[in-house]
Design goal:
Blueprint: H1 29-48, H2 53-75, H3 78-112, H4 118-122, H5 138-169, H6 172-186, H7 190-204, H8 211-235, H9 239-247, H10 252-280, H11 284-289, H12 308-318, H13 321-352
Helix pairs in contact: 1-2, 2-3, 3-13, 5-8, 5-10, 5-12, 6-8, 7-8, 8-10, 9-10, 10-13, 12-13
């Protein structure tokens, strides 16, 4: 009786070649490498006696990148190691950008919350010496709201109409000239805008310091940001929407008003709020044109006013414990003010955006 012998099929992998299935690092490996690098970096910093936490962080980041490359090359291959190193560098750059921001925010909140209360928000510095405790930011907060509002009322429509012209109508020499001057205005320092308004509005036309003069300089700084952001948002609107509206016999101006702008309203509103945030913290134009005052001046067209950035600068320059505490409180109020503006803008954009779906 013959025995049945099972023969295995011949191998299709040539001798000496690498197997198709290769080892892969687990998903938790990057986090483990990061934790190990952080521990080693902090240990090295303690052993070397480094007092700066920045040095600890830089050493940890360097060890993270090197460790990722070495371990990945050992477990997987050189190609995957290079890919993971590129990803690690992106994460390191992200952390290096976020950590100072979080640190600044934490310090501002912890120091500003000590003085930020109802009394601080509802009283001015009238009758209070800068070196003494007490006083508040009501006059500066009122001035900031009025100046930013006037600047937005001036700059937002002009910037929006300019962007519409460049995207929908602009051709030839005029469009190129407008684009060139918008690019130039984007890079001008804030002090130059303040000097321009000072030379024209104050010296040539004879008007005195006022919140409106400061708002004019802020509007100059705000306009190019609105133009650029709105222009990019309008370019993202599909041409098919414009063509469909025009094919139905709708005039071009009505197509822009009813189709193009509602489609891009979210991005446009975000751009306007970015421009508002850009001008809210400006100090140089306000220092030149508004002068600053301790009194409450609700009229932005007559007399000196104050603003939160100018208030922070003045109080910090005094150098006493009370004035520095007020400066931190005003800085926190300024951050909260900008955040509230962004939240309102997001709400308006969500409300006005075209509805999708069924």
């Amino acid at each position: 009786m013959s025995q049945l012998v099972k023969h295995s099929p011949p191998s299709t992998v040539p001798a000496g070649s690498a197997p198709l299935a290769q080892a892969h690092m687990p998903k938790w490996a990057p986090a483990a490498i990061a934790a190990g690098s952080l521990l080693v970096g902090c240990g090295a910093g303690l052993a070397a006696g480094w007092h700066s936490r920045v040095q600890w962080g830089l050493v940890s980041a360097l060890l993270f990148v090197l460790g990722t490359f070495v371990i990945t090359a050992k477990v997987e291959n050189i190609r995957q190691a290079k890919d993971r190193v590129a990803t690690s560098l992106v994460w390191v750059c992200f952390v290096l950008a976020v950590v100072p921001l979080l640190s600044l925010g934490w310090v501002t909140i912890t120091k500003g919350v000590e003085v930020l209360d109802v009394y601080f928000l509802t009283h001015s510095m009238n009758g209070v010496l800068d070196a003494e405790a007490g006083g508040g930011i009501y006059h500066a907060l009122l001035g900031t709201i009025e100046q930013v509002l006037i600047a937005a009322v001036i700059a937002a429509p002009i910037g929006l109409l300019t962007a519409i012209y460049l995207v929908e109508y602009g051709k030839g020499t005029l469009a190129k000239a407008v684009t060139f001057f918008v690019d130039v205005m984007t890079g001008i320092p804030s002090i130059v805008a303040g000097l321009f308004v000072l030379a024209t509005w104050n010296l040539m036309l004879g008007f005195g310091p006022s919140g409106f003069a400061g708002a004019l300089a802020l509007a100059i700084l705000m306009m190019p940001v609105v133009v650029r952001s709105t222009e990019e948002m309008l370019k993202l609107v599909p041409n098919e929407l414009r063509e469909a509206s025009l094919a139905l016999g709708v005039p071009k101006w009505r197509t822009i008003l009813k189709v193009v702008l509602p489609t891009a309203i979210g991005g446009i509103t975000t751009g306007v709020m970015l421009a508002v945030a850009r001008i809210t913290g400006e100090t140089a134009p306000v220092l030149l044109l508004v002068f600053g005052t301790k009194l409450i001046n609700p009229d932005p067209f007559t007399g000196a006013q104050s603003s939160l950035p100018l208030y922070v600068y003045e109080q910090y320059a005094v150098g006493t414990d009370a004035s520095i505490a007020r400066a931190w409180g005003a800085a926190l109020a300024l951050i909260v003010f900008v955040m509230l503006l962004n939240l309102v803008a997001r709400g308006i954009a969500r409300w006005k955006a075209p509805q999708t779906g069924r």
